[in-house]
Amino acid sequence: MKKIYSVVKWGCLIGVLVFLVSSCKKAGKTTTPSGLQYQFFEEKGGKKPKVGDIMKLHLSYRTMNDSVLYDSKVLGDSFLIELMQPLFAGGLEEGFALMGEGDSAAFVVSADSIFEKLFRTQLPPFMHKGDKMRFDVRLKQIINKAEFDKEQKEKNAAIEQNDRLQIENYLAQNSLPMEPVQPGFYFLTIKEGKGEHPKSGERVQIQYVGKLLTGEIFDSSSQMGKELGYILGAPEVPNVWNIATANLKVGGIYRIILDTKNRKGLMGTNKLKNPGAVYYDVELTKIGE
Question: What is the percentage of the chain residues whose pLDDT exceeds 70?
């Protein structure tokens, strides 16, 4: 699915396994000609979304034996998604298009198709070919895409400005001689280390501590119970770590300060719900296998 605007993306939903038990209402189900099975619990008569509109939803999905795989209420938030054309016959998007603001409904779809076409991954081992999944949805709000894009642009600009002020104050208060490598990304070598710098394609191991600018720790390799290893320069590795680690030698330590935009994808940042700058102190412990 393209263009997903959300604090929770579809691909991220796969890994959230929250096992709850809930009753499953059986009466009043209807099937569309394409094979989508659905049941409405509330119909408010509100406006319906068009392709391209942004929908704010509360959503949970589960196996048909009521093992809940994801529930946005457990995470304490709703998420936003752009309505697209159905990705397969009987697709969930067809169900979204049937809803109006304020409506709640359940949709039963093919697990094979959901994982292959929407999540773009294989079925998990606890599910089998031919299984069905149930999605419970409440459509909270429909937002025009142009209005949404304008609002997001203004919001992002405000976050960037606030991050810049936070970082400037942090550098001044701590007398740190750090210059930006690129906007929102600062690098400082704390300890040089010995030997050669790692080369692109080599495996490196690091120990790290991630902190808010207040000094509060939000993540560390010691919390994980092991060092973090990765291939330097690999496309799946956030570029700020590739750049910073390439400047280290074994035993060397660096500090990187990152604004909200640059922190995305780094270890532990998925724990942070609010925007804001962070910093990592990272030690290169090993080069090679």
Answer: 89
The model's pLDDT over 118-139, given as tens digits with 9 standing for 90+, comes to 888 888 888 999 999 999 999 9
Please state, rounded to an integer, the average pLDDT across all residues of the chain. 86
**Mean pLDDT of the region 262-272:** 82
Looking at residue 62, its amino acid is R
User: Among candidates 62, 49, 114, 106, which has minimal Cα distance to 87?
Assistant: 114
Q: Strand, coil or helix: what is 194?
A: strand
Q: What is the pTM for the complete model shown?
A: 0.60
Buried b (16+ CB within 10 A) or exposed e, 5-26: bbebebeebeeeeeeeeeeeee
- Least Cα distance to 77 among 53, 96, 59 occurs for 59
H/E segment holding residue 147: helix 145-173
- What domains, with CATH codes, occur in the chain? 10-143 (3.10.50.40), 159-287 (3.10.50.40)
- What is the 3-class SS of 218-244, one letter each residue? EEEHHHHCCCEEEECCCCCCCHHHHHH
In DSSP terms, 212 is beta-bridged to 278
pLDDT in tens, 14-35: 333 333 223 333 346 899 999 9
What residue ranges in the chain does DSSP mark as E strands?
Answer: 30-31, 37-42, 54-63, 68-71, 79-82, 104-110, 132-143, 179-182, 185-191, 203-212, 217-220, 228-231, 253-258, 278-287
